[in-house]
Design goal:
The protein is an alpha/beta fold. It has a domain of 209 residues: NAD(P)-binding Rossmann-like Domain (Rossmann fold). It is 40% helix and 19% strand. Strand 1, helix 1 and strand 2 form a beta-alpha-beta unit. Helix 8 crosses helix 12. The N and C termini lie far apart (52 Å).
Length: 325
């Protein structure tokens, strides 16, 4: 019997990666989005577009009928989390609960607060000392305590790779590679948790394959790549085939601009993630699905830069020499 999944926020960055991964794995995918899906996804024979607002509870419940898994991949604008995060969650919970589906959520490390320890396991105490930490804690609490709901959170570090833009990789690290700069928001020797989206999407598929066995609520961690800024710097230089001068993110300018730019205020609140070393302990996830997908760092960075159109193009002379060889 074919498995069916409803992906909420299918036109977003992680949503697109999930749609692609589930469709290629043989699932029938219902892809909810307000805007049209990218052409390649919309044309996939296993993908059915669901055009509706994510807060339309009636439409979501109709779309969820007959699915085994609902994935809440909706991510409101960073400055509107306080208004939209919980209403969007409640709509997703309603859809999953009525259909009896497993609800899955991509989680992050915000829950652990600004004093997060260096190693994060599902049992690490959560501290709601920032607005986004409190929202994330409440999100997962509602999933865990809603009667009749089965749910899974797969927590990961900062995303990179996959379709589109809007991650630290393209907004900061690679924002000036064409000018010979590698821009990093923290100290180059501080460990930071990253998740290469194609790998994370594959982990979602493999957990979803076990949906019939999962009762209650589960919090799982996806370790991804825990690397320093220096390691990313080296990987990016290798991919670009040139030296890149390391440069700091201009936090002083951001602090001044935050008086006028709401997004910059939000970035300042979360700056601690670049100041405190952290990585995720993925033992529970490995116990459930076995060895985790992990593209080697250099390969993942190169693919990500290629998707952003930032890799240097071979010169005509090099192309001709290769053709003659």
């Amino acid at each position: 019997m074919a498995s069916n999944v409803l992906i909420l926020g299918a036109a977003g960055r992680i949503g697109q990666a999930l749609v692609s991964a589930f469709a290629e794995a043989g699932w029938s995918v219902r892809a909810q989005a307000r805007k049209p899906l990218p052409t390649a996804l919309a044309a996939h024979p296993r993908v059915q577009a669901v055009r509706c607002d994510a807060l339309d509870a009636h439409a979501l419940r109709a779309a969820a009928q007959g699915v085994q898994v609902v994935i809440h991949a909706l991510n409101p604008p960073y400055t509107q989390w306080d208004k939209l995060a919980l209403p969007l969650l409640d709509a997703a919970i309603g859809a999953a609960r009525e259909s009896g589906a497993l609800l899955m959520l991509p989680g992050n490390v915000y829950n652990f607060g600004s004093d997060l320890p260096a190693r994060l396991s599902p049992g690490t105490p959560q501290r709601g000392d920032t607005p986004k930490a409190r929202l994330r804690i409440e999100t997962e609490s509602r999933m865990a305590t809603t009667p009749g709901l089965r749910s899974v959170v797969i927590r990961a570090g900062d995303f990179f790779g996959g379709p589109g833009r809007g991650t630290w990789l393209d907004m900061a690290l690679a924002s000036r590679v064409n000018k010979g700069r590698f821009v990093y928001p923290g100290a180059l020797d501080t460990l930071h948790a990253w998740a290469y989206l194609p790998d994370l999407a594959q982990a979602f598929v493999r957990v979803a394959d076990r949906h019939a066995e999962l009762a209650g609520h589960h919090a799982l961690h996806f370790a991804g790549h825990a690397v320093t800024g220096a390691q990313l710097h080296e990987a990016m230089q290798t991919a670009m085939g040139r030296d890149l001068k390391a440069a700091d993110l201009p936090w002083g300018l951001i602090r001044v601009g935050a008086l006028l730019v709401p997004m910059w205020r939000e970035l300042l609140v979360m700056r601690y993630l670049w100041q405190r070393p952290h990585q995720l302990d993925d033992e529970g996830l490995r116990d459930l699905i076995g060895p985790l997908p992990q593209t080697p760092l250099h390969q993942a960075v190169r693919a990500s830069l290629g998707e952003l159109g930032l890799l240097p193009q071979p010169s005509a002379s090099a192309f001709n020499a290769k053709a003659r060889a």
